[in-house]
Structure formats: C-alpha cells, structure tokens
Specification:
- With 97 residues, this protein is of the alpha+beta class.
- 25% of the residues lie in helices and 45% in strands.
- The protein contains 1 helix and 5 strands.
- It has a 5-stranded antiparallel β-sheet, with no helix packed on it.
Length: 97
C-alpha cells in the first residue's frame, strides 16, 4: 500500500511517497539533488536489524528534466500492465494432490 511520506524533507531531498512491499521492504519515491542536478529517485529500501530503513542499490534516479517523458512512458505501459494484472487475476492456483 502506498502512503504519504512520514519523514520531513532533509536538505536537498524530499521523500514524496513510500510504497510497502511487505517482508521488510519498501519503495521510496524521492526528489533529490546530486552533483548540481535534481533527480526523481525510485529506490528499494530494506529494514535493518535495528529498525532503520536503508537504501539498496536497486533503483533508478531520473533527471527531473525527463519527468514528463517518464510519465508518458509509464502511461504507455499502463495498457500492458492492466492486461497482465487481469490475466494473473484469472489464473487458477494449482490443484493440491
């Protein structure tokens, strides 16, 4: 389930949204600044043993200049994603023997 960011912005980084992946994993959508550029960062996070959420290397940082192109591409993928979700919903679990 997606939730609004629970953390305030820190410096040049703003946590926009958190998506719970379950099993100690989340996806963070952030707007950040690195080496004189602004980015939209979508990254997997995991919960450490002490309860902190830490980033993994799995993710993507897209320059904000490409924001509209990213939205257009995600919109173009929507029909295929919807088709696959519908197909998965129609699948029957394997019969138990």
């Amino acid at each position: 389930m997606a939730e609004r960011a629970e953390q305030p912005e820190t410096g040049d980084e703003v946590l926009v949204r958190v998506i719970d992946r379950g099993l100690g994993g989340r996806i963070h959508i952030r707007v950040s600044h690195f080496k004189d550029r602004d980015y939209i960062d979508v990254r997997n996070f995991y919960e450490s043993d002490d309860g902190q959420w830490l980033p993994t290397r799995k993710g993507i940082a897209v320059p904000v200049e490409l924001y509209q192109e990213l939205l257009d591409a995600l919109g173009a993928a929507k029909a295929e994603v919807d088709k696959r979700i519908a197909a998965d919903a129609g699948k029957q679990p394997p019969a138990k023997k």
